[in-house]
Amino acid sequence: MSLRDNPLGELKVPLTWTAGIVFIVVLIAAVAILLSDRRESFDTDAYGNPRTLSDKVMAPIGEVASTPGRLTGEGVEGVRGYFFAVSENRRLKAELENMRQWRDVAIALRDTNERYRTILGLKTDPPIPMATARIVTDSRGPFANSRLANAGTEKGIKPGNPVMSENGLVGRIVGVTDGVSRVLLLTDAASRTPVMIDRTNARAILTGDGGPNPKLEYLRGQDPVKNGDRILTSGDGGVFPRGLPVGVAVKGLDGRWRVVLAADKAPIDFVRILLFEDFTQVADTKKLVHTIAPPPTPGASTLPPPEVAPKPPAAGAAPPAASPAAASANTPAPKTTPAAQPPAKAAAPTAKTGVSATPAAKAPATPAPKAATATPTAKTSSTPPAKAAATPAPKTATPQPKAPAPKAAQPAGGAP
Amino acid sequence: MSSGGARPLAPWRWLGVPMLQVMALSLLFALPMRFWGLGLPEPVFALPVAFAWAVIRPSMLGPLAVLTLGVFLDFLWGTPTGFWAVCLLLPYGLVLGGRSWLAGQSRVIMWLWYGAATALALGAGYLFTMLDTQNAPNWISVGWQFLATIILYPFADRLIERFEDADVRFR
Fold first, then answer.
1. Quick check: is B167 in a domain?
2. pLDDT for A365 beyond 60
3. What's the pLDDT at A140?
4. Which of A315, A400, B6, B134 gets the highest tally of CB atoms within 10 A of its CB?
5. How far is CA A33 from CA A302, B74, B75, B80, B130, in A?
6. From the CA of A26, how many Å to the nearest CA of chain B?
7. CATH number for the domain including B82?
8. How far is the alpha carbon of A165 from chain B, nearest alpha carbon, in Å?
9. Longest Cα separation, chain B
10. B79: distance to nearest CA of chain A, Å?
């Protein structure tokens, strides 16, 4: 039968209909793709292979395309530096004079801090290694604020690593592959950052909304913040280290407290990616809790005789001198007490050491008085070791005095 | 005698080339550059093209091209995959459905229609972001992107003028 004889041979479907059907199918497919996206997870698999591949392709393109602009900017800066060298020199001299005073204050504070650390037996965080990268693409819209940086897994970068410019915190890594990583900016609507107000130590969550100034949410207390207060990362939750400079608080036009980001002072071209891994991320908490204590050394004077069973201390009574050491072998993060302090004074440093990470091995090194050991042992045993390390010692990362100074708004010393 | 108007319109001419141009422009505006301390705006270059495609003619390839552009923007800007595809397809469908009303309208009226399509796309983006992040995006930023996008209508107009009558079957 020829086509002409076919009764359906003359049937023509209008193109509008077919286009409409294709449109509906494509729309359904797009919605399905959107619903299946999981970008909130710190997991490379969740970031997705297509996105990883596209980042890998776009990073070198962006790098090449941004080269002329970068070179032009450097040339303009060079010319400007030549013509404004005298005024720049004057400004730098004034700044240097100011900084010399701050240097003296910093040296004095460092000395004081070291003495306090020695007295309290504090163990501060080790220095954080970092990788340098250059930003190659930048999205600034209201729905996404992210950038691609030209460094990836080959430099040890992982999802969750904080990213800083020379002025302050920029964001964190949300996706990484070989040679490229994507930085989620603090201004992105999906960004939440635990911060604190430096003056009052009040906590808040810095919430991006696609605008230039993210909001401070979940503020607590009476007048916890005022205009010009410096905002730092609090370290709560363990994603960011404590004390990274974020910006300055301002009252927004909508009546909310917002933050003028310190990183916005200059174009963000080069960034430092902190290879920060919180103790809660690297430690196997279950394994730590179930660690079997080693057998006591025969003849050791610091250990109790094996045949003596430990008795629970009565309320208010002091345990035997050796019991903290034995307890410290089972609980991985007990805190030492100040050695030569009376029990009444030991309360204040105990509260401080509750948020620090003093290893158990330090306990025998400081001969604790009997009366002082009862409270800290109870305190620290109720605190999980992972939590203790999550919040490093306050103020040690930011050795900035509270004294007012013309350059106090520049949070230069907070960077690790 | 020239028979250019009688030839069927090749898809690469009205779909492929504009799509590549949009990709290049979007990438250019995504470079980290500042002028006098201010960053570049971020207009949605794909919107005038999607609007023009729906006006020029109904096509089976049109929605697929819009989907491709949307996914490209998602990968470039870091939005959830499918976000811009849906945001672009919605105005595309709206304009495709109202194509008979748009025929023969003046440039100003078409610009208003284009503004409505842009508002629909950004409104959808606002809603999706709010649902995804449990957080409302900044209205001022959305407004700036809206303004930066609606001034791109001359590009859509040029595309429409060039290809609306290019295929005699759709005159």
1. no
2. no
3. 85
4. A400
5. 64, 11, 13, 9, 18
6. 6
7. 1.10.1760
8. 14
9. 62
10. 6
Structural domain contains residue B15: yes
Task: Flag whether B6 is in a domain.
Answer: no
Would the CB atoms of B82 and A73 count as touching at under 8 Å?
no
Residues of A whose CB is below 8 A from B125: 142-143
| C-beta neighbour count of A164 within 10 angstroms | 23
Best to test chain B binding among A28, A34, A58 (most B CBs inside 10 Å): A34
Distance from CA of A27 to the nearest CA of B (A): 6
Do A231 and A247 contact (CB within 8 A), yes or no? yes
**Mutation to test the B interface, candidates A137, A143, A186, A193, most B Cβ within 10 Å:** A143
Q: Find out whether A235 and A390 touch, Cβ atoms under 8 Å.
A: yes
Q: Tell me if A33 and B141 make a contact (CB, 8 A cut-off).
A: no
Lowest mean pLDDT, pick from A338-342, B1-5, B45-49, B52-56: A338-342
How far is A273 from A164, CA to CA, in rounded Å? Answer: 6
Name chain A contacts of B129, Cβ cutoff 8 Å.
Answer: 142-143, 189, 210
Q: What is the pLDDT of residue B24?
A: 93
Cβ A27–B80 below 8 Å, yes or no? no
Query: What is the value of pTM for the model shown?
Result: 0.70
Of the listed ranges A72-76, A363-367, B19-23, the one predicted with least confidence: A363-367
Question: How close does chain A come to B75, measured CA to CA in Å?
Answer: 6
Residue-range definition of the domain harbouring residue B151: 11-31+43-161
Average pLDDT over residues A255-269: 87
Q: How far apart are alpha carbons A69 and A77 in whole angstroms?
A: 12
3-state class of B2 per DSSP? coil
| Interchain CB contacts (distance < 8 Å): A and B | 167
> How many structural domains does chain B have?
1
Span between the terminal Cα atoms of chain B, in Å? 20
**Range in A44-58, B28-42, B112-126 with the lowest mean pLDDT:** A44-58
Q: What is the pLDDT of residues A225-254, one digit of tens each?
A: 999 999 999 988 888 888 899 999 999 888
Q: Which residue has the tokens 């604790």?
A: A368
* Total Cβ atoms within 10 A of residue B58: 20
DSSP state of A243: T
- Give a yes or no: residue B4 inside a domain: no
Task: Identify the three-state secondary structure at position B101.
Answer: helix
Task: Tell if the CB–CB gap between A73 and B33 is shorter than 8 Å.
Answer: yes
- pLDDT at site B126: 95
Q: Is the pLDDT of residue A110 over 80?
A: yes
A317-354 pLDDT, tens per residue?
Answer: 444 433 333 333 343 333 333 333 333 333 333 333 33
